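chain and backbone:
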Amino acid sequence: MSAAEIETGLDFAASGSGPDEISRRLESMPASSYLWRLVILLSLGGWFEVYDLFFTGYIAPGLNRSGLLTTTTQAFFGFSGIGAFVAATFAGLFVGTLFLGFLADRFGRRSIFTFALLGYTAASVAMACQTTSGGVLLWRFIAGIGIGVEIITIDTYITELAPSWMRGRAFAVNQAVMFTAVPVVAFLSWWLVPLSPFGIDGWRWVVLIGAAGSMVIWILRLFVPESPLWLARHGRTEEAVKILRTLEASAGVAPARAERTADLLPARAVAKAGFAELFKPPYLSLVVMFMIFNFCQAFGVYGFANWVPALLVEKGITVTKSLQYSFIIAFAYPIAPLLAASFADRFERKWIICGAAVAISVFGMAFSQFAEPVLLILCGVLITAANMTMSYAYHAYQTEVFPTTIRARASGLVYSMSRVSATFSGFIVAYVLREAGVGGVFGLITSAMVVVILAIAIFGPNVRGKPLDT
């Protein structure tokens, strides 16, 4: 079922109404420097979200070194190990995406991503000050809630700003900008985690540096306007038109389209759509498919990303060397989406996702077999590149198929399954690593990728070139 087919299922807007006209004009608008500037500003806000999310794996050796958490535990659900730290992160993300994703639909994209950033930054500062494993896990969980809300809000906003013909590139650039945070946090961890500057554990410095920097971005993001589609959908057509005119003027099309603004009609009352409606036609098949996909894709992305240093240590590499290798691998995070931008809108997103899943499986099994540093780094780079290709594609894919009224709520619901998966993956990967080694971990990841390929290839809708359903 495509976005266009969904439109026939529920009448969220009358034909010719404000939201429909604004959607049409956004879809026909050429790219402009102002539009790309908005994408980059949103991505800079997401930079610290990625920094905060990815230091989960990179500071793990430091948490172990400081005596707060152990690498593995005797009990499967042991709360004294790194697995519990990973689980706390993604449990918070689950709560944020599933239960609080509706906030962006109710209060607007702009205000929610601003306050979500402030919230998870404060929680990270509190975590850096903890001296017990329980305190670290609690505040990591709270920070995860804010990160979860932030992820959904940014995805929704970029989807509503970028026309379908360039949406893939917009998300590729978004991911490239955000994921420059990974080599930065990898470098800071490589440098600081083995040390204790001024008597303070190095991992605490890594956390606090990110929190301090995020405050600058919080101010910059105040210059980002609200989504015109969201405004029109909530009866604020005049505000929506004002923002749309700015976008059109920056693209050099305002004179040709200015006369159409008089034809815009006020939006009808926003339809009430709760979680129950998402499990009814016409959304049910999409929701189920994306829930299965998200549950499985998280094993590929986070089963590797959050465990790179630990996997390398398990292969006999020292902690310092493992962080050094992880730093090198981390450069693939921003570079891969930039390379993917060259084909992001040339192919259906479902096939890009399937191809990336195949690559994750192949290069992952190779990683498990090699011992030479050069080959390990090469495989790590290729796995990361495949993960990032899949990431930009599905972040666009799972938001553009739902209508504006419930876009954040629906994408939050399906994305929350990846948070559930990632929560348990921390314990599962720790257990498999102990019982079956690195080969067992990548066997698990490969099995998850097979399910991803089957779900998307068979049931995934085609979306290329189709406008958003308002």
In short: The radius of gyration is 22 Å. The chain has a mean pLDDT of 84.
